[in-house]
Amino acid sequence: MSTESAVIAIDGPAAAGKSTVARELARELGFNYVNTGAMYRAVAVAVREAGMESYGGGDFLERLKALLAAADIGVAAGRVTLNGRDLGESLNARGIDDLASRLSALAPVREKMRAMQRRIAVDGAVVMEGRDVGTVIFPEARFKFFLDAQPEVRAQRRFAQLAAAGAKTTLGEVLQQLVERDQRDSSREIAPLKPAPDAIVIDSSALSVKAVVGRMKAFVAEGKKDRGS
Predict the structure, then answer these.
(1) Segment 106-159, tens digit of pLDDT
(2) What is the value of pTM for the model shown?
(3) How far apart are the first and last CA of the chain?
(4) What is the DSSP letter of 141?
(5) What is the location of CATH 3.40.50.300 in the chain?
């Protein structure tokens, strides 16, 4: 199976609903689900555990390359492992998301993740979500979506998630963090966040998960019919 037909790419900013939508779409289509953001957070966990979180200095990139070469990051059945250890809630520890965002702007990290993510599709059909799946990882994918939502809506969603988890924050703080993350992700030189030229853009601000998944399934079905597959 070629990656053109084996991959459904879903990109978009933080808290747009990518993970929930991608997981449900994969379930309904019988595809594997891959959260590339979790893979970057796994790198952040590895960097933190290696005592390299406050990175800097002339030898940092060499140390990072060595760490990446030794890091075995696995993705299976919605679980992410680091050297065989299920990371579980470690991926959601305080500061990991921000560290992952900063590390994702570095070429060695991008190169490691791209190679891993390309290999994953060899094992079968996947719904892969992230920020550069349709633009960099699988530009040849037949089905590409860019899921977006208004910043205030995304902030409310993320705030509700954090509150449910017992995190101490405010809606204003969450909104500010999302706006800063959007700016950082869209302005970085390597793999900036943006829709692929041929991506289908869906604004989920006023849509339910069911409605978004339904639209994506309809596009996939129509695309397969058009291509005779």
Answers:
(1) 999 999 999 999 988 887 899 999 999 999 999 999 999 999 999 999 999 999
(2) 0.89
(3) 12
(4) -
(5) 1-31+125-224, 36-123
Q: 31 has which bridge partners?
A: none
- Contacts with 26 (C-beta within 8 Å, 6 or more apart), sequence order: 32, 33, 126, 127
Contacts 24+ apart (CB under 8 A), 65-72: 65/108, 68/43, 68/108, 68/109, 68/112, 71/42, 71/43, 71/46, 71/112
User: What one-letter code names the amino acid at 142?
Assistant: R
Identify the CA nearest to 8 among candidates 148, 126, 140: 126
CATH T-level assignment (fold) for domain 36-123: Rossmann fold (3.40.50)
Return d(Cα 79, Cα 69) in angstroms, integer. Answer: 21
Which overall architecture, per CATH, does domain 1-31+125-224 show? 3-Layer(aba) Sandwich (3.40)
